[in-house]
Amino acid sequence: MSMHTKTDSEVTSLAASSPARSPRGGGRAVYYVQSPSRDSHDGEKTTNSFHSTPVLSPVGSPGRHSRHSSSSTRFSSKSAAAAADRRCSKGDKQWKECDAIEEECLLDDDNARRSRTRRCYFLAFLVAFFVLFSFFSLVLWGASRNQKPIVTMKSISFDTFSIQAGNDNSGVATEMVTMNSTVKFVYRNTGTFFGIHVTSTPLDVSYSESQLILATGSIKKFYQSRKSQRTLTVMMQGTRIPLYGGGVDLSSKDGIPTAPVPLTLSFMVRSRAYVLGKLVKPKFYKRVQCSVVLDPKKMNVAMSLKNSCTYK
């Protein structure tokens, strides 16, 4: 057991005499650790006796350092990979959300463009339809204006014409006229694609000297189809029409005039055509005025008005 006991001098000499070994694979340092000897026979603690145990430094132990380094590298690589995966997953999620938002924005833009395009097409259609409809309406209106109705006076006959003295409603004494007459005329619609609604002002027969109306008649409203005509007969009557001095030139015998009586027949025919519903409805006015001479010898005889009337 004494063989294992070494003094401080022996340890020192051993340390000095031990050649320094070059570290393997680099500058590896060797350290010696002195531990107290446990082989003392007397059990007394010896503070100066140590065992020398060579210990490699952490730098000098290539196996442990390389294993520690490789495990650390693997751990750090796994952590970095996990972090990268997390980042990638977050990035992928963000990219997916961005792609979804971008796709939704593109869809919204596309829908907005389509909506604007449809509105533009609709407005263009309305404008084109309005322009074409207006043009078509103007064409119809212009064509219908050239197809005016024609009024042709045929004849007039006097059934009764008498002059009598009397009193008006207020009791004033004056001469009074009673007459009945019948007038005939032809109304012709020259329109090729429209019918006509016809009305007229009252037909008046007046004394030419004083413009006093002696008889009047009316025409009922009627409809005349396209390219057609009809003959109208209108009765004009006047009963006890006071002259009030306007008929001083009228001479009579037994109530019958002894001289021809100048009379005037006048009225206006109003026509309206509905070419395109109520949108295109041209109007036509025809004023008729005829100069007639009542001959007491030709009562109840139809007198021609062919050359006696003017049309305006």
UniProtKB/TrEMBL annotation:
Stretches for region Disordered: 1-78
InterPro entries: Lea14-like_2
Sequence ranges of Polar residues compositional bias: 46-55
UniProt keyword terms in alphabetical order: Membrane, Transmembrane, Transmembrane helix
Positions of transmembrane segments: 121-143
Low complexity: compositionally biased ranges: 69-78
Domain of life: Eukaryota
Protein name: tRNA-specific 2-thiouridylase
